[in-house]
Amino acid sequence: MLDDIPEEEYLYKGNTACAGCTAMLALRYILKAAGPNSMIVNPACCSTVCQGPYPKSAYGVPVLNIAFAAAAATADGIASAERNKGKNIIVFAGDGGTVDIGIQALSGAIERNANILYVCYDNEAYSNTGMQKSGSTPKGAITTTTPTGRKDSKKDIDFIVMAHRPVYMATASSAYPKDIYKKVQKALSIEGTKFIHIHCPCPSGWRYPTERSIELGKMAVKTGMWFLYEYEDGKIKLNPPTVAALKKPAPIDDYIKSQGRFKGANIDAIRSEVEEGIARIKEMV
Amino acid sequence: MKKMSTGNQAVALAVKESDVEVVAAYPITPQTEVVETIASMVEKNTMKCAYIRVESEHSALAACIGASASGARAFTATSSHGLLYMHEMIHWAAGARLPIVMANINRAVGPAWNIWAEHTDALSQRDTGWMQFYAATVQEVYDTVLMSYKLAEKVYLPAMVNLDGFILSHSIQPLDITDTGDFIPPIDMPHALNTDDPVTYGNLTTPADYYKFRHMIHTAMQRADKEARSIEKEFAERFGRQYGPVMEYRTDDAEIVILGMGTLARETEVAVDLLRKEGIKAGSIRIRQFRPFPKLDLDGKKVIVFDRDYSFGAGGILAQEIRMRNDVPIYNVIAGLGGQDVSYNTIADIVRKSKDEGEFWLGVD
């Protein structure tokens, strides 16, 4: 199934990610798709740490680490210099750096149609600092700053991004790496601002056994807790796993119960949130 | 070529002359004319560079950092709250050793809103690792921007060129738009991001390495002091205009020296002439290079320091800097805050009535 994906690795062994980290899985396929003619801009996030400490780096392409709120603007600065024409300038940012503190720079960059690919790997919390609530944390999830579970609803960055009418936008899941590969390749073939939002289960933050990362990623898609789609020319196109899931969504119970972060959560409240989300995305298609 | 120019236009023309590749900026009073002039030159194709109309000053400097990190020559301009909004990235630029040049049009900081000249904005960035220069004429603005690029790219530290809001930014004076030829060589950064040699910048660093990096910034600052002198010398030989870390006026036999920065210190030179006519042996020292801070010989002289800035709970910032290095009594005059008018007559009057030591607030005390 993965025959046409290159064997070359740009994410090396010895990176300092946690066991079962799906953000690194996503990055591995992003870099395979982007190839060596690429540069990464990293705001403060897990990925900054996963490179390993100076003077070592586990990333096989140049990386510029930058302050939390600055990633999209920094990437635009690189992309704007004539000397960087033809290079893939990729932001790899967590949900906190995208949905919350970095949203202004992201908004500005899309508005200017900066020639960058902005990837948000979404583990639904500030995982680098020990699992605090981010704008992307789902309702009901326990974090260290929502110790009895999040009461309000998550911020939907995808709709915010789509309101900017970017040249290309997609959601993806680390449980579907071939899909990531294809979407990154497609994004990089288009001039302008591209945004890919990748759902990345986090075993240490979500509190589940490391070997279940892929399984949980797939469950999120099958239950309709996460959608896979692409946005181009003002239209949303659902991808096959989500088309199938929306015909008959799997019950969310197993997904919720297999994660420590939802301990004691009101499953009915989460279920109605998911149903609302499904109804909304169906309206968009 | 000679023309009449404002301080702001002089900044823009010097940026053009410096072959800047990427400008990212957000408008703010009284800097706006800088970015408008550059935008106009870029759109009329008289200046070739990428111009990024960012959504904030934080992003302005972030974009310059991205451009500079990839080896391109970058520029931004700001003022007051814009500078403060950049503060995080100001640290980042210096820590990443990026030779970005920025023009800061000195302006007071709110509340209350005040758009007029004051140095507290720039001086609050004192400890970020940027070189800081304060100009006093339109020509000096132009020349300092040019020399700053050459210097920044020699020592890999960013440079801030300061000019007083409205007093200098909007003053129209004669400007010699010097064709600098090969004075500023093409930029060649050994640590530019390079896909052929993938390197990670700014990732997690242990205390021992971080400490070494800080020390390297310190030694680069020391080197900058020497390099600035040699660049000023070359500039003087080639273009006939001479600058130094301080600009002294009638100090040779002076018994009283009046110190200050920017346009207020230039006004002081006229006050010195007035006082000399009265038989008072006064001279003035204008601090042009605030970081790295110059050495001063003040022994045996009565020292009066004018501060267009203030550090609450401590005193005038320039006076503190001088006190730290010179064991002399200082009469510290706080004047010109928020654009308060300080004429040569006022300065002369303060000097006539000055005490040997203490602090004096013009218009309050």
SSE layout and pairings?
The complex is a heterodimer of chains A (285) and B (365).
Chain A: H1 22-34, E1 38-42, H2 46-50, E2 63-65, H3 71-80, E3 88-94, H4 95-100, H5 103-111, E4 117-122, H6 157-163, E5 168-173, H7 177-188, E6 194-199, H8 203-206, H9 213-223, E7 229-232, E8 235-238, H10 240-247, H11 253-257, H12 267-284
Helix pairs in contact in A: 1-7, 3-5
Chain B: E1 2-6, H1 7-17, E2 22-25, H2 32-43, E3 50-53, H3 57-69, E4 74-78, H4 80-85, H5 87-95, E5 101-106, H6 120-123, E6 131-134, H7 138-155, E7 159-164, E8 172-176, E9 200-201, H8 207-239, E10 246-249, E11 256-260, H9 262-277, E12 282-287, E13 289-291, E14 302-307, H10 317-325, E15 330-334, H11 344-353, E16 358-361
Parallel strand pairs in B: 2-3, 2-4, 4-5, 5-7, 6-7, 11-12, 11-14, 14-15, 15-16
Antiparallel strand pairs in B: 1-8, 6-13, 10-12
Helix pairs in contact in B: 1-2, 1-7, 3-5, 7-8, 9-11
Describe the model.
The complex is a heterodimer of chains A (285) and B (365). Chain A has one domain (22-283): Thiamin diphosphate (ThDP)-binding fold, Pyr/PP domains (Rossmann fold), CATH 3.40.50.970. Chain A contains 12 helices and 8 strands. Chain A has helices spanning 22-34, 46-50, 71-80, 95-100, 103-111, 157-163, 177-188, 203-206, 213-223, 240-247, 253-257, 267-284; strands at 38-42, 63-65, 88-94, 117-122, 168-173, 194-199, 229-232, 235-238. Chain A has an 8-stranded mixed sheet, sandwiched between helices. In chain A, helix 1 packs across helix 7 and helix 3 (71-80) packs parallel to helix 5. Chain B is α/β, with parallel strands linked by helices. In chain B, 54% of the residues are buried. Chain B has a 7-stranded mixed sheet with strand order 3-2-4-5-7-6-13, with helices on both faces. In chain B, helix 2 links the parallel strand 2 (22-25) and strand 3. Chain B contains 11 helices and 16 strands. The interface between A and B is large, with 46 and 41 residues. Strand 2 (63-65) of chain A pairs parallel with strand 9 (200-201) of chain B, so a sheet runs across the interface.
